[in-house]
Each structure stands twice: as C-alpha cells, then as structure tokens.
Amino acid sequence: MQVSETTPIIVGVGQFVERIDAPDYAGLSFADLSARAGAAALADARAALPLAPMVKAVGAIRTFEESGAMQVPFGRADKMPLAVARRLGIEPEVAILEKVGGQSPLALLADMGARIASGEVTAALMFGSEAISTVRHLTTRGESRDWAEHDDGEMIDKGMGFEGTLSPVSIAHGIRAPVVAYALCENARRARLGLSREAYAAEMGRLFSPFTEVAARNPYSAAAVKPMSAGEIATPGERNRMIADPYPLKLVSRDQVNQAAAVLLMSVKAAREAGVPEERWVFLHGAALANEREILDRPDIGAYPAARAAIASAFARAGRSVADIAAFDFYSCFPIPVFNAAIDGLGLSPDDPRGLTVTGGLPYFGGAGNNYSMHAFASMAERLRAKPGDFGFVGLNGGFQSKYGAAVFSTEPCEWPGCETGSIQQKLDAAAKPSMAPAPEGRGRIGTYTVTYAKGVPEQAIVIGEMLSGGRFIAASREPETVAAMTEVDPLGREVSVTPSEKRNSFTFA
Q: If you average pLDDT over residues 1-26, what whole number do you get?
C-alpha cells in the first residue's frame, strides 16, 4: 500500500535502565536517563544519515516530580525537553512538556504525529524517565547531587491536567494516593461479581502471575525479577505487607525505578531520504483518548466506560478486532484497569497465549511514572518488527482510572489515522450521574471500601455506598474498633450508621 509522504511513522525506539546494584551504576539524573534512551532511539532507526539534525520537535513526559507527586532535593532541569535535546545535539523548533497521566505518551504521540502529518516538521523525538530509585538511594546514604539546569529556549507547557480527576469531597475523605482510589474501584468490582475476599485475591494473583514471567525476561526491568505464582503475589505476608485492601505490596505499581524510554517519529519522505530501512517502520493504525468521571460521579465505581469506548474506537479506526491482535500491553498499575479493559472489556483470559503485556507490567517491570507506556510502545515496536504484518495493541491508563488511551500498531502500511477524542467524550459525558446524598445521616449500605495500612498496620477505613433513604454517600473512620471490624469481616453490603460534618462524614457499623 502506498501512503502519503507526510505519513508519520515510528522509525526508532530506545529504552534504558540503571540499576543501583550494577557495577557501572552512576546515579544518572532524569535528563541524563532520557538522553540515553533518546540516543538509543536515534541509533535504532539504522539510518544512513545522522538523524539528530533532522529532529525539529521534541517532547517530554512529565516526571513524578514535575507532576507534584514528590520532591527531589537535587534540583532539576527547568525545561526538560530542551535539556535532553541539548545533550543529543538536537536544535528543536518545537519543545513540549506533556500533561500528567499514564495516557500522556499517546497524547504526545498524537501531537507529534499531527505536526508531522501537517508538514510542520519532518522528524520528532519523544521521551521520558524516572530516577526515583537513585533519589531514594542517594538521600538514604546522605549523598547529594546538583541536577539543576536552565535552558533559554521556548517550551510549550501543557499544564498538569488534573481537572476532573478528584473532587474536594473525595480528597477530604482520604482519596489522595492512587492506591486508595484503585482499591475502592477494585472492591466495587468484587462487589459486582459477588466474590469473597479470598476468591478475588486469587483472581488478582492469577491475572498478574504471567506478567512476572515477562518482566523476568525483560532486560529493561527496573530490577531483577523472578517469576511468581498467583499465591505468592496475592497472599499477604512479611515480605508482602498490606498497603490498602485488597492490595498487598506485590499487587502495587513499583515506582522506585531508574528507567527511560524514547520514540522517534519521521515522515515517510524524511525516513526514505535518511535511509531508514523500511523494516524499521511501524505505523499507527488507530488511536483514541477518553476521560472518565471523578470517582463519586461514576454510576459503577468498579467499571471503566472510558476504557471500553477508547478501545472500541481504536479498533474501529484500525478496522481490526481483538482476534486480529497478536500482542497486547495493558497498563497495569493495579489489577483493576487490566480487569476492566482486557478481561471485562475484551473478554480475554489471564492465560491468553498472546499474553497481556510485552513489558512485564508496572509492579514487576517497573512503574516508570507517567512514562510507562512509552516503554510499551518501544517493546511493541520491537515485537512487531520481529513478525511483520502482525498487529499490536497498547492500552494506557491515567489518573485514578480517569483517562484512557488505546492504540493499534503494525508494520503494515496505512495513512495516519489521528487520535479520536471528541465523539467518544460526548457520549460518555451524556450518561446519567448518580445522585449524592447532600448531608448523609442515618443508615446506609457499603458498596465499596478500602482499609489503608501504615507499615502493615490498619490505619483508616473509607467507605462509599447508598443511604437507605436514597443517595450515594462517602465516609471515613480512624476509630480503632471500626477499622478492626472492617478487617475482620467482609464489609461489602453491610449496614453502617453515617454521621455528616463540615469536613468529612464518619461512620460506624449499625
């Protein structure tokens, strides 16, 4: 198939990992890690001509620090895209810092691709990294670094993009950390399926056990990984302490990583002129991004309509079905987004012979912040090049099951499909919202919950449910008796007595 000369294609991918126990460990900064991955992507294209001078657009995925999730005491580059470009000898005309979220690699890919398709630029490099492992390692040892640097060029900062992810009410009741939000979603799904705690834990372990096998084979995993059985993953213990019900540590995304990934895009014409072999080319066949509502506004807290809508749109644009896909990578910070997208949404099985990940997943390969799916893009491109004509799918998840991206790739040529957003969002936004009880007082029934732990000790309970008089409620408790009761007996479906207050509602068992 002949495609337009301005069609954007992936021609190079690169990944880099720095393990603190490696003999050559150097404690690289965020910008240094990204530059290593960027250099690898430029080399991966195997062009006949130098590619750095051709790159006129660069884009960076926000680090956790730039996202407000942590503070690094060593300083940082004030314009990450330009700091990395400088290291690579790139002089960009466009530099972009993308929004927060695990969906951001697809948003940036869509932006860069659109600029190439319109003829604004002919080559673009996108990248991202995390160095949290090094930050923690050095600070624990009492060491310091100077990672602060400044660039004078212009940068497009797309902003944080937190709008609509959490309401003040949710935050007031303790829904701040991702593990808390996802735990509430997970237990809501368990409630819908009618499974016991033990049965659902077994399902979570069964889902993620194959991920550990992939991570163990992946040379870019954040640390050495051994395959684990479902029981090892899901059974709490001394080395697998509870974080937030229903999650022990081994079901939680690993953020302590030093990882980077990069993707190089070029127009077909530029790739030919640079002598990039066609067997390196990977085409985007379909893509979509969709936003989910804030947790309390979701009719079913355990579901993910935005994920289903985005996936359906990407498949439709690509003209493919799930049966046509040879390889998958589902964003896997916790089990619930994989359950929603892969198992409930597409009807896949945890032991599907095609596998549900090409990287190994965030708890085992590494949760490289907002940039995890850049690694999925890179691994998928390598997988598809090895089997020309196959199709691969990458599902991206951001926020608190707040934003979903879906992308279909293949070495099979096709015109640039763009990334669908508007029509999907209109349908999602039109769905009815549940009504909240304005000042919930009296009896209610628990629909979902979590108990958070501090160093393995239960600390706080959060519940969401329906008042018997009507309307949804949220409440929290730190009372030892109530928290203990939540751990001793499955609280799903139990009645509670809710007491309102200005700051947050409290509850006790009725």
A: 97
Residue type (1 letter), 78: D
Write down the H helix ranges in 359-479: 372-386, 422-430
Distance CA 264, CA 415 (A): 18
Mean pLDDT to the nearest integer, 99-108: 98
Burial degree of 145 (CB within 10 A; 0-12, 13-18, 19+): middle
What's the pLDDT score for residue 510? 85
- Percent of the chain exceeding pLDDT 70 equals 100
Q: 28 with 17: CB under 8 angstroms?
A: no
C-alpha neighbours within 13 Å on the C-beta side of residue 28: 22
Residue 36: φ, ψ to 5°: -65, -45
Q: Average pLDDT for residues 60-67, to the nearest whole number? A: 96
Q: Tell me which residue has tokens 């949220």.
A: 474
Rounded CA-CA distance 377/10 in Å is 10
Cα 388 from chain centroid? 27
Cα dihedral 245/246/247/251 (nearest 10): -170
Is the preceding omega at residue 8 within 30 degrees of 0, hence cis?
Answer: no
Give pLDDT tens digits for 255-267. Answer: 999 999 999 999 9
Task: Give pLDDT, residue 169.
Answer: 96
Sheet holding 325-330, edge to edge: 283-291, 403-410, 391-398, 325-330
Q: What letter would DSSP give residue 323?
A: G
Task: Please check the confidence at residue 234 and state whether its pLDDT lies above 90.
Answer: yes
> What's the pLDDT at 1?
81
pLDDT digits 0-9 by tens, 284-313: 999 999 999 999 999 999 999 999 999 999
State the pLDDT confidence band at 432, using cuts at 50, 70 and 90.
very high
Closest CA to 498 of 474, 470, 482: 474
Answer for the pair 74, 105: CB distance below 8 angstroms, yes or no: no
Across the chain, mean pLDDT equals 97
Name 197's Cβ contacts closer than 8 Å, sequence gap at least 6: 190, 246, 490
Look up tokens 């302490």; give the residue.
241
Separation in Å, CA 222 to CA 212, 249, 343, 360, 494: 12, 16, 27, 11, 41
Phi, then psi, of 380 in degrees rounded to 5: -65, -40
For the segment 215-222, the average pLDDT, to the nearest whole number, is 98
Burial per residue of 304-335, b for 16 or more beta-carbon CB atoms within 10 angstroms, e otherwise:
bbbbbbbbbbbbebbebebeebebbbbbbbbb
Q: Which residues of 439-478 are buried (b: 16+ CB within 10 A; e: fewer)?
A: ebeeebbbbbbbbbbeeeebebbbbbbbbeeeebbbbbbe
pLDDT attached to residue 294: 97
Quickly count: other Cβ atoms within 10 Å of residue 277's Cβ.
12
